[in-house]
Design goal:
It comes from Hymenobacter ginsengisoli. This is Circularly permuted ATPgrasp domain-containing protein. By secondary structure, the protein is of the alpha+beta class. The protein has a domain of 212 residues. The protein has nine helices and 19 strands. The strands form five sheets. Strands 2, 3, 15, 16, 17 and 18 form a six-stranded antiparallel sheet that branches. Strands 6-5-10-11 form a four-stranded parallel sheet, covered by helices on one side. Strands 1-19-4 form a three-stranded mixed sheet. Strand 15 and strand 16 form a beta hairpin.
Length: 376
């Protein structure tokens, strides 16, 4: 299967794909759906923007924010409840796109190479891959010419997720453009393609400010915070509003207790059962699994952290040499023409390390990114 992927998209797959999809039984599927609905109810509250204003750093606020996020991605650990039944527990959430193109592609690759039964599907509130790709086309392109829509990244050819960019171009004709390559004239933006200068009408944003900060000398013509005539597909402000910052607002049996550190009059007595997370970082950066009261007292910027009750991943996926932990990400699209988000598909990650991310599972097998296949 991997050889086939490399044949179709040479040199593009730069992260580990696990040896198996994840087969999600109906009972866990339904709990995942309900867990997602509980989060969406919070996001749809009339005062949600007001409650999350402080989530956006002043220097990173982008003008012309829209009414709601167009992408929602929620990460859940697969755990067991007190009676031993499988249940999801919320780890993180983002108002930011994930590997939406890759998740249309990977299930097809598994189906081509593995005996996948017809009783499961990678899709949830849509019927099939064709409907999935059409759903994304409508959201990403709208009524524009695909040539006037770009996927904006920072050095996309170097990103581990570049296979998703290649598939975004294959499915929808959208070019991945690096921020320094954008030209700005007045309030208008342009990029070059085949020796032609092309007007940018919509931006499918995949840039995270956290990464931009690593290049202080970049000095591009266009900064994300500029007030320009462009439509955002996935406005950057939603990356901050729907994030770790939102976790303490969620009340659900599938969401562990979370607290803004600076609002705690006293720390939980069982501090060993909590994890410390910086509010403004991504991909597991800065997360501390083992903290003491002295560690917390020493932090000069408590307002930038939260405490979240630890979640115990249940080893549930059978590998030849034991059981493996699993995390499932739900992927939603939410066009402005729709009153509710649509749960289109999922993404899964298998792990043997203490944390789930790719960097924590190097030199292991039966780990990595994969596809959840939900019981119909």
């Amino acid at each position: 299967m991997l050889a086939n992927i490399d044949q179709q998209l040479p040199g593009q797959l730069d992260f580990r794909v696990a040896e198996t999809p994840v087969f999600v039984p109906a009972a866990l599927r339904d709990k995942l759906i309900e867990a997602g609905r509980a989060i969406i109810r919070v996001i749809q509250q009339p005062d949600f923007k007001q409650r999350t204003e402080a989530a956006i750093p002043a220097s990173q606020r982008v003008p012309n924010e829209d009414a709601h996020a167009e992408f929602l991605t929620f990460d859940f650990a697969v755990c067991r409840d007190a009676s031993g039944e499988l249940e999801p527990q919320l780890i993180e959430m983002q108002g930011f796109p994930s590997l939406y193109a890759f998740q249309a592609y990977l299930p097809e690759m598994f189906t081509a190479h593995y005996p996948i039964p017809p009783t499961v599907s990678p899709f949830l509130e849509i019927p099939d891959a064709e409907a999935y790709r059409q759903n994304l086309r409508n959201l990403l392109i709208g009524d524009k010419n695909p040539e006037n829509v770009i996927l904006l990244e920072l050095f996309p050819e170097k990103q581990k997720t570049r296979i998703d960019f290649a598939l975004t171009k294959k499915y929808w004709g959208i070019e991945a453009v690096s921020l320094p390559d954008i030209r700005k004239r007045g309030r208008q933006l342009f990029y070059e393609k085949d020796g032609r200068e092309i007007f940018i009408e919509r931006i499918y944003n995949r840039i995270i400010f956290d990464e931009l900060d690593r290049y202080p000398d970049l000095n591009p013509e266009f900064n994300l915070t500029d007030d320009v005539d462009v439509e955002w597909v996935g406005h950057p402000n939603w990356f901050f509003r729907i994030s770790k910052y939102t976790l303490p607002l969620i009340s659900s049996p599938f969401a562990p207790a979370s607290y803004y550190l600076h609002e705690l009059a006293e720390y939980p007595r069982d501090l060993e059962n909590y994890v410390l997370k910086p509010l403004f970082s991504f991909a597991g950066a800065g997360v501390r699994l083992h903290v003491t009261a002295a560690d917390l007292d020493a932090l000069p910027d408590k307002q930038n952290y939260l405490l979240q009750r630890k979640v115990t991943y249940a080893p549930v996926v059978q590998a030849p040499d034991g059981l493996v932990k699993c995390e499932i990400r739900l992927l939603y699209t939410w066009p402005h023409s729709e009153p509710q988000p649509t749960l289109v598909a999922g993404l899964a990650r298998l792990s043997r390390g203490e944390m789930i991310g790719v960097d924590f599972n190097k030199n292991k097998d039966w780990v990595g990114g994969t596809t959840p296949l939900f019981e119909k």
